[in-house]
């Protein structure tokens, strides 16, 4: 149903030119202050897309985002005490 997506952080030297990254994938966020952009691309074509992005003159470096590999479901060993404080 949904294609597997991979996130990349692209460090750029020109923020205005970073808007052109939309044609390579889904441009999620552009930081004007820190000069980076977050882009999501299909995982099956990620390597060839990154090679094309590296060739752009305004791209300084590319880092892979590990957000989808982090555990986002948390379990507490202690019981929930919020119910005992209710009125």
UniProtKB/TrEMBL annotation:
Keyword Cytoplasm annotated: yes
The UniProt record lists the keyword Cytoplasm: yes
Source species: Paenibacillus spiritus
The protein, known as: DUF2129 domain-containing protein
A Pfam family that the UniProt record links to this protein: DUF2129
Keywords, in A-Z order: Cytoplasm
Domain of life per record: Bacteria
InterPro entries: DUF2129
């Amino acid at each position: 149903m949904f294609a597997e997506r991979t996130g990349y952080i692209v460090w750029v030297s020109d923020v205005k030119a970073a808007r052109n990254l939309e044609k390579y994938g889904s441009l999620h966020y552009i930081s004007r202050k820190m000069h980076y952009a977050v882009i999501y691309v299909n995982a099956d074509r990620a390597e060839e897309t990154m090679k094309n992005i590296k060739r752009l003159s305004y791209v300084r470096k590319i880092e892979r985002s590990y957000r989808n590999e982090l555990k986002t479901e948390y379990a507490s060993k202690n019981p929930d005490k919020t119910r005992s404080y209710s009125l």
